[in-house]
Amino acid sequence: MSTQWYNLKNGLPLEQGDILKEAQVVVPTHEFLTGATEDVGVMTADVIILTQSCDLAHAGKTNWVQVAKLIDIQELFPSYPSIKGNDKGRVNSIIKGYIPNYHMIEECTLNSFTSRKKIIDFREVFNLPIEYVQQLAIQQQQLISLNSPYKEHLSQAYARFYMRVGLPTNIPLF
Known about the structure:
The chain is of the alpha+beta class. It has 6 helices and 9 strands, in the order ββαβαβααββββαβα.
């Protein structure tokens, strides 16, 4: 088992944990939701694949690839890397998995593919056509991809976010 978080891979085959730079995601606007079908927005973002590798490996098993938006840590915490006070506690809570909608991945230091720590926002999940994602991976030629067990840790964090249950009333604390 590798202690390295990432590896570089050729674009295909797609796998869970692959990072795609500048993917274009169609985002419905309010006008679209009220019936004006021509009003959609396009957001460009770095994304990470959430769809299980086994589903991506079998042709025809899925027509869609689920991805989540990656946020540079400095976008949420402008003082990074010298985080202090409440922000320090919040970053540590994200690292420990106490804030279910966020999952942090380590900085990347692979050759020319360097980046700061990234935060995955499970509230910003999108489905993209598999043909589009495959073409984007081919165009990018080399992808940064999470190694095991970090990709499984990502999957588990997403499952915890997705499966949480809010009760209308809870058992009182002692």
